[in-house]
Amino acid sequence: MNSTTNTSATENHIAFHETIVIGAGVSGICAAIKLSKAKVDYIVLEKANEVGGVWRENVYPDCACDVPSALYSYSFALNPNWDRVFASQAEIKAYTHDTVNRFGVNAHIHFNRQLTKCEWLETEKCWQLETNNGVYRARFVIMACGPMHIPLIPHIKGIETFQGKSFHSATWDPDYDLSGKRVAVIGSGGSAIQFLPAIQRQAAQITLFQRTPPWVLPKVDTKISDRWRTIFKRFPFTQSLFRKLLFFQFEFLNHNLKNKWFSQRLETAAVKHIARGVKDEALRKKLKPDYSLGCKRILLSNNWYKALGKDNVDVFPGITEIQGNKLIASDGASCEVDVIIYGTGFEVSDPPIGKLIYGRNGRSLSDQWAGSPSAYLGTMAEDCPNLFMTLGPNLYTYTSAFVIIEAQVKYILSAITKARKKNIATISVDGEKSAKLNKNLQSALQGTVWNSGCASYFIDKTGRNSVNWPWTTMKMQRRLSKINLKEFQIERHS
C-alpha cells in the first residue's frame, strides 16, 4: 500500500481508539512506529493527502536542512543513500515516505483529516476530536503537529493595499515565474537565505528587507560519494558511529555557545565569511549583526553573501509600510515591486494548535498560555490529562529535531504503557511540580546567549524564553527516558 492511500473513517458513529496521533510528519511517523511496535490501538489523523509535514509543505527553491542528514533521521531507520551531507527537501520528504512504507504503518494513517477541535470529556475520561471529516474519541492524544507549520505573516501598515503577487515561503507557488520581476523579500531567516540566492538569477531586481541581520557560517556541504554510500550499506555500524560523532559535535556547540571566548571565535569566523562574500564595505556593515552569535538561530550558507553582493540586489532595513506597490523601509528608503515573498517564519511562541485544545478547565490551551507556552518537560500541559505534545515548549537545543522527538516518544510510550498496566484512567500535570521545574529552567536560561537581549523567536511576547532547553541534550534524554508517575496527578479506573 502506498503511504498516501486514504483510510476511511466511521461515518455513523464516533470512532474510539486508545490513542490518536495528530499529524503525519516526522513526529507523527515516529509515534506511529513505536505505538505499532508496542501493539497499542491507535490511528494518525493527517490534514493533507500525504505524509511529510514541514518537508511536504515547504517547496521553495533550494529548500534543504541545516542539520547533517546522518543526524537528521531516525536512529532506528538510518538511510545509507543520502545524496549530500545536508539533505534537500525532496530527499527528506522521500525519506518520510520510505520510512512509513518500511515499517508498515500506512493503514493507521487517515488522510484529509483536519483537526478543528480537541476537547476533554471529564465524565468519559477521554478526548473528543472534531475534524472536517468525522468525530473521534481517544484515551490518549499525541499532538505531533510541531511548531513550524502555520506561516507567520507580519502586521505591516498598508499590507492590504498591495496590488501585486504575494506569498509566504511555506506556501510557494512553483508555477509562478519570477523572471524579470521586481521582488521584495521580507525577512532574512532560515528560509530566505536559501531561496533568495536561488531566485537572484531570475529576478530583475531583489530588495531584501531585514529587521536584523543573522549570523551566518559556512555550510560544510558536499556530495556523499558512491564509495561511502556502499560502506554505509554494507557496514551499518559505520553510519551509526558517524551519527554519534555528529551528535557530540552539536552537543559541544550547544554547551560552548554559553562560553564567551568560544562564541567570539565563531563570530570572528562569521565576520570573515561576510568579508569573503561581500566586497562593498557599506554593505558589509549592514550585514554584520550587533548581537552575540547564538542569540538568534545560527544559519548556514555558502552563497547568501555572494547573492547579496550582486548588482540586482539591494538590502534595506525592516519594512514599516506598504503603499500600493511601493514598500517603505524604517530609514525612509523605498522601492516599487511586483512581488512580495515573506520569509518570516512560523508561529513558534504562540502555536496555533493551542487554539483547538480545550482541557479540563474548559479553556483553550492558547488562553491558558496567554502568549507564553509552558509544559512539563515540553511534553504535557496543565489541565490537559492524557495529552502529549512533541517539540513542545523549552525543548530546543542545537541538535537534530529527530533526537528530541525520539526522546519524547519514548517518554510518551512509557506513560501509555504504565497507564495500561496500572489501571490508570488519567495522568495529569502536577501544577506545583511543573511550576518548580519551569522556574528552575528559566533560571538556568538567565545568562545564556539565547537570553542575551536580541529579538528572536526564542523570546515570546511576555519577554520569557519559551523555546530553549538550557542544559545538554543528553540531560534531556535522561529526563525523558521514562515517566515518573510520582511527578504527576493520577486517577485510577473505579
How is the topology of this model organized?
Elements: E1 15-22, H1 26-37, E2 42-45, H2 54-57, H3 89-103, E3 109-110, E4 115-121, E5 126-131, E6 134-143, E7 165-168, E8 182-186, H4 192-199, E9 205-210, E10 216-217, H5 226-234, H6 236-256, H7 260-277, H8 281-287, E11 299-300, H9 304-308, E12 313-317, E13 319-323, E14 326-329, E15 334-336, E16 339-342, E17 357-358, H10 365-369, E18 387-389, H11 401-421, E19 424-429, H12 431-445, H13 473-479, E20 488-492
Parallel strand pairs: 1-2, 1-6, 2-3, 4-17, 6-18, 7-16, 8-9, 8-16, 9-12, 10-11
Antiparallel strand pairs: 4-5, 5-6, 13-14, 14-15, 19-20
Helix pairs in contact: 1-11, 5-6
Largest sheet: 8 strands, mixed
Structural class: alpha/beta
Number of domains: 2
Helix content: 25-40%
Instruction: Look at the structure and give the CATH class of the largest domain.
Output: Alpha Beta
- Quick one: overall form? globular
Residues in β-strands, percent = 15-25%
